[in-house]
Predict the structure.
Amino acid sequence: MSGKVPQQSNQVSSRVGQRTSRVRHLLRGPRPEAVPALVGRACALVGLLDIAAGVFPRFRHSRMHAIAEVLPGSFGPFAAALSLSAGVLLLLLAHGLKRGKRRAWRAAVVLLPAGAVAQFLYRHSFIGVLISIVLLTALVRHRDQFSALPDPRSRWRALANFVLMGAGSLALGLLIVSAHPKTLIGDPSLADRIAHVIYGLFGFEGPVDYAGNTSWTVAFSLGALGWITAVTTIYLAFRPEHPAARLTEDDEVRLRGLLARHGGRDSLGHFALRRDKAVVFSPSGKAAVTYRVVSGVMLASGDPIGDVEAWPGAIERFMDEAKAHSWTPAVMGCSETGAEVWTRETGLDALELGDEAVVDVPDFSLAGRAMRNVRQMVKRIERAGYETRVRRVRDLGETELERIRQAAEDWRGTDTERGFSMALGRVGDPSDGDCLIATAHKADDEPGPYGDLKAILHFVPWGTDGVSLDLMRRDRSADPGMNELLIVAALQAAPKFDIARVSLNFAMFRSALARGEKIGAGPVLRAWRGLLVFLSRWFQIESLYKFNAKFQPRWEPRFVVYRASGDLPRLGFAAMQAEGFVNLALPLPRFLRRRRTAPRPCAHQVAEREMRAA
């Protein structure tokens, strides 16, 4: 018995210690880095409660409204319009507070005391004042957690805000108009209700009428929605413009110097010269990471450029930039070596995304049973009178280059240019003289707008002994098989240009497609392959894999690097936006679209012109 007493006393003391630590944890409050997310969620919840209080009359007499009345943002039980306005404003602030944005913090610091004063004046609610003070104290105490800089922005944000807020106000307005059936006079049609909402947003009386004071409540609520839409749109239209980052001429010169020394390491290296990307350099200047910000995701592509030993410095600068703006860091299409460095230096995770098809030129041949289909297709097209030409960009005249550029733009199958991580975004630029262009011609046909030109393949340099496929375009009236013809022509002409390796298309989820169709594949793998085949109706997943497999390449895995599993949906959507599969921009009328201009000269050409002028 005596041996059990110390054991029981130890258990009691451990429980007391656990309770004490819990109390200390509660008194200490949340971790500083968790404050933005907590405050943002609280604002979103309060905003939803305030909107419900302003829209639904029954909510204003429920227990939930009794709770909502003492939360920041509720300006009194009778002021439905003010409650609705506060709710919308809090919802607009919630996302910025979650991301630790400084401007959202400033707005919340102003709104919370205003809500506390309103609570005290209208309801003499000390609980509401106390809650406002608690949240305000948390914001002020952890103000260093709300230091994120603004995102790149332009005047188009004002137009997008007007459209989105207008649509949201119209939907909320229909709810407000229809949420008072007991006082509604008559049975107005849907068209009358929509007209009433539109009139109310502009502050005018509509065709719908109510008994009692309900008409005033509805009118003030609709007017508040219209006021918020107008104010936010005017603010976005007149605030200082911070355009999206672009690759400057000096950045391009520095990147070209790094590619000249280390460009043979990664087949995607030359795509870092896209001029709609930004760049961060390592402190030594020996490495760089290019990126684009899409929907709050800081999206890098491929491996860092430059010396591998300097990669950690560039990656650190990249992560610092992401933290400064509260962007979600991610990398698309990096190699296995790149994924190892990224995960080691940042603690991020990596996931295999697919495989890149690489053909070794010395091993390529059309002979053999495996190349039978390609061989037959190429011979059939050649018998139809097509001929091919493979040349460097610098060897083409300006007239022919302009014809190729225009044909590549007109033969594009989509309204927007697709590609980000594995596309250069331009053809025939004077600074890209080492790029390779393969063209197909047919002189027997009647010349079209581009003469006898029928198809184009554009390759970018991969070091000094390789090229990487950039784009494939063909005339829709040309015979099928143009791409196979030009790839074979480029591979056969490669030795003349001292090219030993050619990178073709990227095949997403290639290993799953290949293993899922083999005998012995498990049910999970077969189901995954079936889903990929189904998605191939809209995205080129299976077709790209089968097209690349025709040329018997070796497969090089490519990875996506991400911060957390919860970021993958957001990352996937941002990647689809960057690659051009999803376009959220509003289409412009044809007469407002920017006219095509000549390619921008690179920095060394500008310097040469200035020297000649001097």
